[in-house]
Amino acid sequence: METGARLPAELQDYIIDHLHGIKLGSWDRRETLHSCSLVSSRWLKRTRKWLFNNLGPVHVVYGGADYKHQRNVPQLLLLLESPHTTIAKYIKHITIYGPDIASRQVYTNVKKGSPEQYAECSRMLGMVLHHLPHVHSLNLIRVTWNLLSDSAKSLILSMPHVTSLTWKYIPRATISDSLGTACGAFGTRLECLDIDWVHSEGKLPPIPPLRITLPHLHTLRVGARLERTAGSLLLSPESFRAMPALHTLSIRTFEEESLSLLGRVKHLGSQLLHLELDIPVFWSCDISDDKCPFPISLHHNTKLLTLRFTSPIILNKDSWWVSKIIASAPSPNLHVHITVCTRHSISQQALAESDVSALESSITYDHRRVLHVHPDRYSNTSPPWFESTIESLFAELRYCRQVVVHRLEGD
User: pTM for the whole thing?
Assistant: First the structure.
């Protein structure tokens, strides 16, 4: 490549890395990288770093799963076992779907795979993971730990570079042993832990806090039903003390009775820098009702830098509880992210007539806070009127340093 040869090698690498990081749709990004891989042998090597960075999803068992895009594991193994392949060293992320089946309507209804399916799952896991020693991020979906074979569990726990673990659809009865075993193996290097959709199996005794020390864990994501079924496992003062480096916390909850456990973020104190709350609107109490105390206060989190609300809110209806949380945060240089509902039921006129006075008073802090406004992520694109309407609506927000209006990625 004549033109490329005039550029320093480091600059060429930077350009390709930048293409991977820009905000494009995943398909457009891959098409761009594919085009770059045809430019020269040097660009081919660099683009492979990103083209094969994430291997997933891998369905190791086909027992009744209704996914249209199941990866052909035998063909994947042929590729990994070929003496001419070089992609294995580029694969850093892998998502594995096990034999359990989860209902999309009732997330607590998870049917476990049969012993035969788990035997096949364990065998295929052993064959695939044997060729992937460089994986940093491991995602396990619908995998019941105690049903795997000892050899499969041993192989997973011996992966030497895993720093991020995601586990979804875990039976409550086994979560303590499953997480305890995994954190015991990965604990000294684990940096990110994401636990989602813990399904219950009848009445079980309380789960004790996780006391395994995770010295490098900086990001914890707790999802869905965990707060109600096993909240004490990760969201407790004892657990937080075992995570001395934790500074980013993301909590998703879909049940009103779980809200009281969100108040436990206060135990992180000044250690917490970034907080994300995904709370669908279901508060039935009024703020003036003394019998229904508000469950969340951030007044102990004195160094909080980012507060993000990812659930779509209707400004007139939901501003009161969002404002109450924002107002409780003492940090002056706070960046607040809110997601405004822009579905078809919310018209431009309804949004323009919203009352944001409650938000205005909660943002007040010596002109140093920044408000970020995002459109509903469930919409395909940002409405054409969204940006102008939001800018007009918050034009009188005098106490905020800046109001930033965002558009959906790919618009």
Answer: 0.86
